Automatic annotation (TrEMBL):
Molecular functions (GO terms): guanyl-nucleotide exchange factor activity; small GTPase binding
Main location: membrane
Name assigned to this protein: DENN domain containing 5A
CDD domains in the record: PLAT_RAB6IP1 (cd01757), RUN2_DENND5A (cd17692)
Domain RUN: residue ranges: 613-760, 944-1092
GO biological process, one term: retrograde transport, endosome to Golgi
Domain UDENN positions: 1-434
Family: Belongs to the RAB6IP1 family.
Pfam families: dDENN, DENN, PLAT, RUN
Length: 1097
């Protein structure tokens, strides 16, 4: 490309034109006069090729440039060389090399074969020198997860090189979204697009990062190429085996004399950083430096700290870094036709690309097993593509190592992965296969052959690339033995005087000799081929003039989207708005199907075994979508999170209106709900950024089932929305906005704990309400009560409750979903008897309220003599209308009708169940536990509730032992624990007299007695029913319940204490009960700490 600029200098003598008026000076200064001035126009020469032979094209243009600027004319007219490249230089076949002649020397290009990695001619070396290994891997991860990526540099070529390299390293995947490596100034409004993109923005070298206003940054990866700096989006998962991956790349780079941390000398800001010491660079974590200072050779690097650490890591695998044979450092015995520097570029390119390709080959070695082939023909499948599942993600992820899941669960949701699988489905035959897919599948087949003994075994062990030598050898052979040589340039049939040489000027080419070639040549340009455009400025130091020209043109306004007509605006943005709404609809449906599981499948909304992608990934994806919606069409960007900025503006406006009394009572109540959620998030010190706060607020709103309502309230301030957003913004499209809010409303159909389960270390205020019996002298209670609350994430420890205080608030670290409450007292005072109906505990941030029924006495001589009880709670289903009432405490509810766990003489005091009902209760309790363990771990509910709840295993076994139980004395309460203690005494006596019938029986009896003794010796005052509950839980944990039932059924004590009709005396029913309880043996039951506290057995 030839470019030459000229600006006429205004000059005047002391006696001449300078005597003119100032007006005439202004008219003539920096103006063009056609009668006296010569205007030079920039000229650009482009080569458009069907394949990206960047090196060859660059050499052609460089030699053309040299011919124009050389003092001596070229051997032939320029038309001869251009004619030759247009018509006489063929495209090299796959797997072959080609030599053709430039103006001053030969040019070689080589094309990979169909079983090699696709052609890529850009210098990978430059990218690693500019950014460093760590930053390249982070940028690569962002690209794979389809974040918005903005490259920033003063050099157009750097923007192009980085963009092309990152997309090439994705093999076998392809970037599916907006790709603009060099974004023209007139199209800056494209950065407002709420879709993934990879764009390059030219820097003038004057403005720093802080002055660059970007529409949205929540999901943006910003790469300042010139300053070796990368700004990553929040919550970026780590690429699998990142440490080993970086180490493998670093070894290759060091073999070529490239430091892994990048070469700062290739940066424009190198002069500013000369004063920095190497240790300063190492500590500069934002740049992703590994360690050390830039070095130029492998010999020097041997003493570097980086190498020492890498060697230490490698030694564990039995490999020494000293012994690594870097074949790239010599040409061996072959005579390479290109120069040595160019050959090294080829070698480094292929070695780095093979390492990246190997990562995907290893991670997706068995991907074909999980591809879901459609039942219908291709046309029908393509028509219904959006409703079809093409990959069994849940099964694939279940086979992966745990460290891979954060990255893979998000990568499987990307468009590039979906397109890759679609391509696989569409290409049934080997002949139909896409070339990229064919190469990848052949590599996967080799991996499977190597791992034939354990084809599905997935481990996180890192496997290095083994295909480098083979790939490098192929290139070396092509460059050593040229397969094709093109016709040399020759004189054309030109008229005399044509093709005249003029130093420093690119001539006007003769179109008559270039218009037709020796034969009709048709060049097919495919959509995915990228064109090469290289610009070279002519001599003359014109940088100063170019800068002046830019300054002169700075007053000219570039066309912006906001200046266009309404019809053009609507046409330009409608696809964005439509796409956002469609994405919202698909995301909400997908999340609901995932959450509802089999129920959704039965309703026809999904396929069994297809769901299962991590819930957290889907919610993070929804947060990203909301940020993109709120970033679309912003007037002025304020802060990195557009959603959080909108919330701040809204609440500030509402605060002013509240103080002025302009809000209705209903509006004020709804605003209070929104404000409470906002205030809670602001008070969480662990969340530092606006993006993090916005995502936490979304999660909290979802958990409270208020997301749609909150966003509707936020958008109800139309004046604020108009002030913040342009007319074409998504949030100002009324119909789409209403549909969007309607889709979000569907989340209220399911329960999410996406806030509670993620922010596990934050402090949460809990409110406790204890409801005693009003009829039985609760106000006379004199003891000092205490309470301990347990959840899935921890417990509070013992909290002392002030006497006669039944309501209190305390703060502690997030307990997760609440499971049990331990409540008791110290038995002090004259009236140490307390009948507690139930306990309510409310999470003041999420609003979740748990009810723990009791209905039992706590006191010596009352009920079963217990001074403390373990209560199992359930989450109350929230009523949205009730939740809107601004009430500080949970609403009072009726006392539950609890089944009393003691036996009295009066038959009316307990429900009578027949043996069939008892068997049914046992079956349902055991079936509930079996179902619990057959669910995926992250979908399981509370095991404590299944064991100790109202319909749990403990309650069902109580019914077994209460059936046919004799009452020996009038007005005397007899408990199941009394029977168990007598049985223990019997077996202990039997053993002392050495009268145990058989060894198995003896072992069971000893275990039974050991557990009874341990529970009786516990320092806790849990009462007889509490002890029975503990015994059942321990028996279930250790798989002993069925042994104990058999033992007790044959015990003589049973005959004394049970009627003949009792279930425990019916051998048929007992055998049936034993078989049911035996099904629990295959499960590893882990008990909550509160259930077995004080027991060491």
């Amino acid at each position: 490309v030839d470019s030459k600029s000229y600006f006429n200098e205004y000059s005047c003598s002391s006696t001449g034109d300078c005597n003119g008026t100032s007006v005439s000076k202004l008219q003539r200064f920096n103006s063009y006069d056609i009668s006296r001035d010569t205007l030079y126009v920039s000229k650009c020469i482009c080569l458009i090729t069907p394949m990206s032979f960047m090196k060859a094209c660059k050499k052609v243009l460089e030699q053309l440039h040299q011919a124009v600027t050389s003092p001596q004319p070229p051997p032939l007219p320029l038309e001869s060389y251009i004619y030759n490249i247009l018509y006489e230089v063929p495209l090299p076949p796959a797997g072959r090399s080609l030599k053709f002649s430039g103006v001053y020397g030969p040019i070689i290009c080589q094309r990979p074969s169909t079983n090699e990695l696709p052609l890529f001619d850009f210098p990978v070396k430059e990218v690693f020198e500019l950014l460093g290994v760590e930053n390249v891997v982070q940028l690569f991860t962002c690209a794979l997860l389809e974040f918005q990526i903005l490259l920033y540099s003063q050099h157009y070529q750097r923007l192009m090189t980085v963009a092309e390299t990152i997309t090439a390293l994705m093999f076998p995947f392809q970037w599916q979204h907006v790709y603009v490596p060099i974004l023209p100034a007139s199209l800056l409004h494209f950065l407002d697009a709420p879709v993934p993109y990879l764009m390059g923005l030219h820097s003038n070298g004057l403005d720093d990062r802080s002055k660059l206003e970007l529409p949205q940054e929540a999901n943006l990866c910003f790469v300042d190429i010139d300053n070796h700096f990368i700004e990553l989006p929040e919550d970026l998962p780590q690429f699998p085996n990142k440490l080993e991956f970086v180490q493998e790349i670093s070894e290759i780079l060091m073999a070529f004399g490239i430091p892994p941390e990048g070469n700062l000398h290739c940066s424009e800001s190198a002069s500013k950083m000369k004063s920095l010491r190497a240790c300063d660079l190492v500590s500069d974590k934002r740049n992703g430096n590994i360690a050390g200072s830039p070095l130029n050779s492998y010999e020097l690097l041997k003493e570097n700290e980086t190498i020492a650490r890498l060697q230490a890591l490698v030694k564990r695998t039995g490999v020494s870094l000293e012994k690594v044979n870097y074949s790239g450092l010599s040409k061996k015995d072959l005579k390479i036709q290109c120069d040595e520097e160019e050959f090294k570029v080829y070698q480094l390119n292929i070695q780095i690309r093979e390492i990246f390709a190997n990562r995907f080959t290893q991670m997706f070695a068995d991907y074909e097993v999980f591809v879901i082939q459609p039942n219908q023909d291709k046309e029908s499948w393509f028509t219904n593509r959006e409703q079809m599942q093409n990959f069994d993600k849940a099964s694939f992820l279940s086979d992966q190592p745990e460290p891979y899941l954060p990255f893979l669960s998000r990568f499987l949701e990307t468009q590039m992965f979906a397109s890759f699988i679609d391509n696989k489905i569409m290409c049934h035959d080997e002949d139909d296969k896409d070339p990229v897919l064919r190469v990848f599948d052949s590599r996967v087949d080799k991996i499977r052959l190597l791992n034939v003994r354990t084809p599905t075994l997935r481990t996180s062990m890192y496997q290095k690339c083994t295909t480098i030598d083979e790939a490098e050898k192929s290139i070396e052979l092509r460059l050593a033995k040229i397969d094709h040589t093109a016709v040399h340039p020759h004189l054309l049939d030109m008229k005399i005087g044509q093709g005249k040489y003029e130093l420093g000027f690119f001539p006007k080419l003769q179109s008559d000799v270039l218009s037709t070639g020796p034969a009709t040549v048709r060049i097919v340009l495919k959509q995915r081929y990228r064109f090469i455009l290289l610009a070279f400025l002519f001599s003359v130091p014109i940088q100063k003039y170019i800068q002046e020209a830019r300054n002169l043109g700075s007053t000219i306004r570039q066309p912006k989207l906001s200046n266009l007509s309404p019809s053009v605006i609507a046409q330009t943005n409608w696809k964005f708005v439509e796409g956002l709404l469609k994405e919202c609809r698909n995301k909400t449906k997908r999340m609901l199907v995932e959450k509802m599981g089999r129920e959704a499948v039965e309703l026809g909304h999904g396929e069994v075994n297809i769901t299962g992608v991590e819930e957290n990934t889907l919610i993070a994806s929804l947060c990203d979508l909301l940020e993109r919606i709120w970033s679309h069409g912003l007037q002025v960007k304020q802060g990195k999170s557009a959603l959080w900025s909108h919330l701040l503006h809204y609440l500030e406006n509402r605060q002013r209106r509240t103080t002025s009394g302009k809000l209705s009572c209903f509006e004020n109540n709804v605003r209070c709900l929104l404000f409470c959620s906002f205030r809670h998030i602001q008070n969480i010190s662990e969340i530092k950024t606006d993006v993090g706060k916005a995502r936490a607020w979304v999660r909290l709103s979802m958990e409270k089932k208020l997301l749609s309502r909150h966003l509707k309230q936020l958008l109800s301030d139309h004046e604020l929305t108009k002030k913040l957003y342009k007319r074409y913004a998504f949030l100002r499209c009324d119909d789409e906005k209403e549909q969007f809010l309607y889709h979000l409303l569907s989340f209220n159909a399911v329960d999410y704990f996406c806030f509670t389960n993620v922010f596990t270390t934050i402090l949460i205020p809990y409110h406790i309400l204890i409801v005693p019996s009003k009829k039985l002298g609760g106000s006379m209670f004199t003891a000092n009560p205490w309470i301990c609350i347990s959840g899935e994430l921890g417990e509070t420890g013992v909290l002392q409750i002030p006497r006669n205080i039944l309501e209190m608030t305390f703060e502690c670290q997030n307990l997760g979903k609440l499971t049990t409450v331990q409540i008791g007292h110290d038995n002090s005072g004259l009236y140490a008897k307390w009948l507690v109906e139930y306990v309510m505990v409310r999470n003041e941030i999420t609003g979740h309220t748990y009810k723990f029924p009791c209905g039992r006495w706590l006191g010596k001589g009352m009920d079963d003599g217990s001074l403390e009880r373990i209560l199992v709670g359930e989450l109350l289903t929230s009523n949205t209308e009730v939740d809107e009432r601004q009430c500080r405490t949970p609403p009072l509810q009726q006392s539950p009708s609890m089944i009393r766990r003691f036996v009295t003489i009066s038959p009316n005091n307990k429900p009578k169940l027949n043996t069939g009902q008892i068997q049914e209760a046992i079956g349902e309790a055991v079936n509930g536990i079996v179902k619990h363990f057959h669910k995926p771990e992250k979908e399981r509910g509370s095991l404590t509730l299944l064991l100790c709840g109202e319909s749990g295993l403990v309650s069902a076994l109580e019914q077994v032992f209460q059936h046919g139980f004799k009452s020996p004395r009038l007005f005397k309460n007899v408990f199941i624990w009394d029977f168990l203690e007598k049985a223990q005494t019997y077996y202990e006596t039997l053993e002392q007299n050495e009268m145990v019938p058989e060894e198995n029986w003896q072992t069971r009896a000893r275990n039974f007695c050991r557990f009874i003794t341990a529970i009786n010796n516990t320092p806790r005052n849990i009462g007889k029913d509490g002890k029975f509950q503990m015994l059942v839980c321990l028996g279930a944990r250790d798989h002993l319940l069925h042994h104990w039932i058999a033992l007790l059924a044959d015990c003589p004590i049973t005959a004394q204490m049970y009627e003949d009709i009792a279930l425990i005396k019916d051998h048929t029913l007992v055998n049936s009960l034993i078989r049911v309880l035996q099904t629990l043996q295959e499960f590893n039951i882990t008990l909550e700490a509160s259930l077995v506290k004080g027991i060491d057995i």
